[in-house]
Amino acid sequence: MEIPYTVTARPDTGLWNAKVGIWLFLASEVMLFGGLFSAYVFLRLDAEPGAWPHGLLNVPVGTMNTAILIASSVTVVMAWASLKMRKFRAYWWYMLVTILCGVIFLGVKLVYEWPQKFDHFGAFIKKDALEKYEPYLGNHHLAEKGLPQRTEISGHLHNKEALNDPNVKEYEIALDPVNADPTNPNMDRPHFLYVPPTDKIATIEKEDVEYANMFLPKHSAYFASYFTITGLHGAHVLGGVIIFTYLWLPVGTKLYKRNPEHLANRVEVAGLFWHFVDLVWIFVFPLFYLL
Length: 291
Fold this sequence. Notes:
With 291 residues, this protein is α+β, with helices and mostly antiparallel strands. The protein has helices spanning 17-46, 59-84, 88-118, 134-137, 139-144, 177-180, 221-248, 250-258, 260-290, and strands spanning 121-125, 152-157, 170-175, 201-205, 209-214. A five-stranded antiparallel beta sheet has the order 4-3-2-1-5.
């Protein structure tokens, strides 16, 4: 039994079935990501002055990943155009490049960016103990400049057992530049290039800490938003790569030999989903990396 309107347009909509379906699906995706972005904005607006992290992410790496996704949007269009012109070999190469771009994007996120967060540490100091850690916070200097005070000391945690061992009474942190020299504006975030923790060690007593953890989702509303949105976006990228790989494998070759226009329609629908995924990242990149 042949399903109607897989290639030819429906008389009521002027579109074939899959194209109607993908636009309905993308409408639901707009509501999903729109809600997440709205939640992020309201959480940030409601945060206390100086409490919302900024400049924690690697801007060059995020810029590179953005360029990779934009390039993949171009190549998937070229793959579709090649099918419309019945140039299957050109389609094969353009689709391969699209798949590789998606894999590189995911690899950078999962192998490079996220593991850095899992190895980083932040301790929020109690308000009545801020003066004790003034050499690492520089709040007197910030007050003179009319800027919000700092409450977090971050860096690389040397004694990781301190997180779960109640017998360890202090944290030993290799300080981030912003805490190693808090009155130096060149040390403050954001940095365009990644700046690793310094060799300067700070000892912070647990009794002076309101909350401390690695840069995991439970660390703060910022990282909860970051991992939720980028994780969901990454799942969409993975889904797109799987679909493209399916259309690129011999399955696509067989469909092309049977009905080239049917394969072109499938690639067009998958391409529309891919463009939406790229558009979402265009919002993610400035929200988390630049602002």
